[in-house]
């Protein structure tokens, strides 16, 4: 099955770890390509490539100041990811409740307090 182009949507754009790292790094504020590259220990051409993909799907915004570009996360564009992951929130809450019940039951069976 052919892989979707990285610029197709936010899901495929964040499929690569460096792009997720860039998004997380940019949550602290606006940064230049050089700052991102240095902080994440990535080559500047690689960072530029990843930023282009993130920008194409709207996950980052860019602002030019002289010859430099500054990037920041567009939190509103992350909504589809947030909504999709919320689908699983009920499942994980249920699973964590079951783990807690088992741990408390095991503690009680050993004579301890839950």
Biggest sheet details: 3 strands, antiparallel
Distance between the termini: 50 Å
Low-confidence stretches: none
Question: Radius of gyration, rounded?
Answer: 20 Å
Helical coverage, percent range: 55-70%
> How much of the polypeptide forms β-strand, as a percent range?
5-15%
Can you walk me through this structure?
This protein has a three-stranded antiparallel beta sheet with strand order 1-3-2. It has helices at 10-13, 17-26, 33-40, 44-56, 79-86, 89-109; strands at residues 31-32, 60-65, 68-73. The longest helix is centred in the C-terminal third of the chain and has 21 residues, at 89-109. It is 56% helix and 12% strand. The mean pLDDT is 87. Helix 3 crosses helix 4 (44-56). It is elongated. The chain has 114 residues and is of the alpha+beta class. The termini are far apart. Strand 2 (60-65) and strand 3 (68-73) form a beta hairpin. It folds into two domains: 1-73, Winged helix-like DNA-binding domain superfamily/Winged helix DNA-binding domain (Arc Repressor Mutant, subunit A), CATH 1.10.10; 76-114, no CATH class. It contains six helices and three strands; from the N terminus they run H-H-E-H-H-E-E-H-H.
């Amino acid at each position: 099955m052919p892989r979707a182009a990285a610029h197709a949507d936010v899901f495929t754009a964040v499929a690569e770890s460096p792009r997720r790292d860039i998004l997380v790094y940019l949550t602290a504020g606006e940064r230049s390509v050089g700052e991102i590259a240095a902080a994440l220990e990535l080559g500047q051409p690689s960072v530029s490539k990843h930023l282009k993909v993130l920008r194409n799907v709207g996950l980052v915004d860019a602002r030019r100041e002289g010859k430099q570009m500054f990037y920041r996360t567009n939190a509103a564009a992350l909504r589809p990811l947030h909504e999709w992951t919320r689908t699983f929130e009920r499942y994980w809450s249920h699973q964590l409740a079951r783990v807690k019940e088992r741990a408390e039951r095991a503690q009680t069976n050993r004579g301890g307090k839950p």
